[in-house]
């Protein structure tokens, strides 16, 4: 059986947290991870720019012969997923803030949705909220662009991160759940819990990978049992620097530990 190639794409390193879970669920696939490090972050850019960068990323993955692509970026999904699905013939799985499972798990409770400014301003998120909440229990929304910068620069210490979070999150709201609506945010679960206590942190990772598995099955794509490989690219350039690869390995481990 030939190896199955699955492409992952994010503006930077955030999607490695989703890749980590996919590798545990489908260890026999070969993964190609594309980080658009030349243009990170996406969360403050215009829609046209995000579509152009997303198209370049998925086009690169298409040339590598992938069977499916996971857009492991909530912002790129919000802005570009329709365009990408219309252009490319293979399945493209997006990510969206997990407002539906948060509403189901905590009906009537105070919920906070954290995302990038572009995602928060986008129609897709507001449509999701309107479909899953009443006007009386709409969740609070907050943009946390600095967390993307922290992640891209390897800043994870709770003192620094919590110092930032407490300037933008109202702890008096006693949130029952926080939706982590950006894949970069999953690296800061320890800081969210230090600031907010035993809050339920919900993201779209599990649902996205479940969707990937379902779509592969629907398309008759079988993933072999033999262990697969993972290759990393930065805006189309292969990552060969041992220090960068070691950092990516640390992020894969961090994602497993904090989940």
Helix content: 40-55%
The strand line-up of the biggest sheet is: 4-3-1-2-9-10
The tally of beta strands, per DSSP, is 10
- Helix vs. strand class: alpha/beta
Number of helices: 11
Low-confidence stretches: none
How far do the termini sit from each other? 32 Å
Beta-strand share of residues: 15-25%
Blueprint (SSEs and pairs):
Layout: E1 5-10, H1 16-25, E2 30-35, H2 47-63, E3 68-71, H3 74-87, E4 92-93, H4 99-105, E5 111-115, H5 117-121, H6 123-132, E6 140-143, H7 145-152, H8 158-165, E7 177-180, H9 189-196, E8 200-202, H10 205-218, E9 230-234, E10 237-238, H11 242-258
Parallel strand pairs: 1-2, 1-3, 2-9, 3-4, 5-6, 5-7, 7-8
Antiparallel strand pairs: 9-10
Helix pairs in contact: 1-10, 1-11, 2-3, 4-6, 8-9
Short description:
The chain is an alpha/beta fold and 259 residues long.
Describe this structure in words.
This protein is of the alpha/beta class and 259 residues long. It contains eleven helices and ten strands. It has helices spanning 16-25, 47-63, 74-87, 99-105, 117-121, 123-132, 145-152, 158-165, 189-196, 205-218, 242-258; strands spanning 5-10, 30-35, 68-71, 92-93, 111-115, 140-143, 177-180, 200-202, 230-234, 237-238. The strands form two sheets. A six-stranded mixed beta sheet has the order 4-3-1-2-9-10, with helices on both faces. The chain has a four-stranded parallel beta sheet with strand order 6-5-7-8, sandwiched between helices. Strand 3, helix 3 (74-87) and strand 4 (92-93) form a beta-alpha-beta unit. The longest helix is centred in the first third of the chain and has 17 residues, at 47-63. The chain is globular and about 50 Å long. The two termini are 32 Å apart. The mean pLDDT is 94.
